Amino acid sequence: MSVVGTLIYQYLPLVVAFFILQKIVAVFKRRWELQWTFKKFPGPRPHFLWGNMKELTGDYAGLVRMADLAHLYSGAYPAWTGPADAQLVAVKSETARVVLAGADPKDEFSYALMRPWIGDGLLLSSGKKWDRTRRLLTPAFHVDILKNYVSTFGTCSRVLVEKWRKSTKAEEIFHHISLLTLDSMMQCLFGFHSNCQNEKTRHPYIQGVYEVSDLIVKRIFNPLHHFNFIYFYLSSNGRKFQSACDAIHQHSERIIRERRQLMSTEKPGDRNIDFLDILLTAKDSDGVGLTDKEIRDEVDTFMFEGHDSTASTISWCLYNLAKYPDVQKKCRAEILEHIGKGKEITWSDLNKIRYTTMAINESMRLYPAVPLLSRCLARDATLPDGRTVPKGVRVAISLFAVHRDPEVWDNPHEFDPERFTPEKNVSSIYHLPFSIGPRNCIGMQFALTQVKVVICEVLRNFHLDLEPGKEAQPESMLILRSKNGVYLNIKPL
């Protein structure tokens, strides 16, 4: 054996031992730093290795437990997700208001896994880039633009209605609603008619969105896959994820190129302006527009944020209407009175269905589509009780808990649309399914408009009943889904 080989053989165990010792020291150092940071925030005792992950789970029991702990720990407490990682969980509206008051970026730890898909779009960007993009995108959600989408929402909803007329058994509705929202998003984003609700073979873009959404959830729950090298080079899921992202990006880029060509030849007024038109023509105060890469990121971000979260909102609303037949009956009567049976729904019609809107708000209170928000504080934040959360701390806000606070809501776990009568004027700091503050959901009115149109189309065509023995089980997986699906019996009127 050579001298070099002998030295390596002799000293390699020492090098490995030193490396391991470094890592152990780093873990203890980080743990001590976090314990010092959270010294004024008592919380549930963590296990040394897995922290509080076994008790603060994403299922219904875990979400309720997260809310119940608010009473023990003054509305905010640390939750450990391992031996050297923790975040502050905020479960009171007053605390949420303080955290959401600034334009702090999303928690990169929680959201970075989506970056290969949605890039540095509005959801993940921060600082001056986020501020500039937010201002450029705001005109895309002006009321005059939203009015044009009502017809599209109605057309896509009627495709669903025709499918459900043929139903002979209980349907798992989340899948159908997700296809509906994808269909309408494709048309509203860039005027693309995918026919995805009926086609058995999905368009590559639609298939890509489905695969990426599913794979992100799987990656979140596999800690080894959080390491890019392991995920993208050593796992089949990582390769599938990259392939699906490539298909999505290629389609978006092609659509952007084709729209640029169309805009250079068409005359003003030839068609309604859509989201992509506004992205392509938007310019800041210096006369600079968005690059094709920035436009692609915004299109992909809006697709991610819009289709699954809206599908969740609609599905849980239909579930609650099936569960509470008296509310369903009252909503249907209002819809038939103010809109009618066969008339195409218009923008002005949506202002007439006040009780139905109350029922939608109550459903979003109990089952917010995004049950957990996460921020990384860019500045020290002083809570209402005087405690200060230092800059750099990750804060998770449980909307599920905020919306079920017994100090704000009477009988908080019960479904009662009367909470949202105009006279009660519920404050946005207590009911915040679209968040609040500078980084609230820019597409809130877009989503609410679609939810109202779909609910109206379904209720004026069908009676909904729960499927016995298949009660939905809420589970937080990026958005609020049901662990066992959302099954309803759908009976034509």
TrEMBL record:
<dbReference type="GO" id="GO:0020037">
    <property type="term" value="F:heme binding"/>
</dbReference>
<dbReference type="Pfam" id="PF00067">
    <property type="entry name" value="p450"/>
</dbReference>
<comment type="similarity">
    <text>Belongs to the cytochrome P450 family.</text>
</comment>
<dbReference type="InterPro" id="IPR036396">
    <property type="entry name" value="Cyt_P450_sf"/>
</dbReference>
<keyword id="KW-0408">Iron</keyword>
<keyword id="KW-0812">Transmembrane</keyword>
<dbReference type="InterPro" id="IPR001128">
    <property type="entry name" value="Cyt_P450"/>
</dbReference>
<dbReference type="InterPro" id="IPR050196">
    <property type="entry name" value="Cytochrome_P450_Monoox"/>
</dbReference>
<keyword id="KW-0479">Metal-binding</keyword>
<dbReference type="GO" id="GO:0004497">
    <property type="term" value="F:monooxygenase activity"/>
</dbReference>
<keyword id="KW-0349">Heme</keyword>
<feature type="transmembrane region" description="Helical">
    <location>
        <begin position="6"/>
        <end position="28"/>
    </location>
</feature>
<dbReference type="InterPro" id="IPR002401">
    <property type="entry name" value="Cyt_P450_E_grp-I"/>
</dbReference>
<keyword id="KW-0503">Monooxygenase</keyword>
<dbReference type="InterPro" id="IPR017972">
    <property type="entry name" value="Cyt_P450_CS"/>
</dbReference>
<protein>
    <recommendedName>
        <fullName>Cytochrome P450</fullName>
    </recommendedName>
</protein>
<feature type="binding site" description="axial binding residue">
    <location>
        <position position="441"/>
    </location>
    <ligand>
        <name>heme</name>
    </ligand>
</feature>
<keyword id="KW-1133">Transmembrane helix</keyword>
<dbReference type="GO" id="GO:0005506">
    <property type="term" value="F:iron ion binding"/>
</dbReference>
<keyword id="KW-0472">Membrane</keyword>
<keyword id="KW-0560">Oxidoreductase</keyword>
<dbReference type="GO" id="GO:0016705">
    <property type="term" value="F:oxidoreductase activity, acting on paired donors, with incorporation or reduction of molecular oxygen"/>
</dbReference>
